[in-house]
Amino acid sequence: MYSLNDVDRLLEIKDYLDDGLNISGIKEVYKKQSQLEDERKRNLEKGLTDSDVRKILQDEFLNIGGLKPPSSSFDDPNNLNKLNH
What we know:
Mean pLDDT: 81
Largest sheet: none
Radius of gyration: 19 Å
Domain HTH merR-type: 1-32
Helix content: 55-70%
Structural class: mainly alpha
InterPro entries: MerR-type_HTH_dom (IPR000551)
Order of helices and strands: HHHH
Distance between the termini: 47 Å
Protein name: HTH-type transcriptional regulator GlnR
Organism: Lentilactobacillus rapi DSM 19907 = JCM 15042
């Protein structure tokens, strides 16, 4: 019997095939997704530094005060990497 995840993956593969990707292209898509997921997990494991928290707080105060449009720095977990450097 197949799990819902298995069925979902098969439907994704069918969609990729319908979009014109071949099997090696689909493997690359899943490889890239895996790499992004691994990077996201590493960023979450690092945690936030005091500097990161101060930056978030400062952005929130500016946003609440209407002095600055909302920042998307933390909408994407991959952007955490930018603040750590």
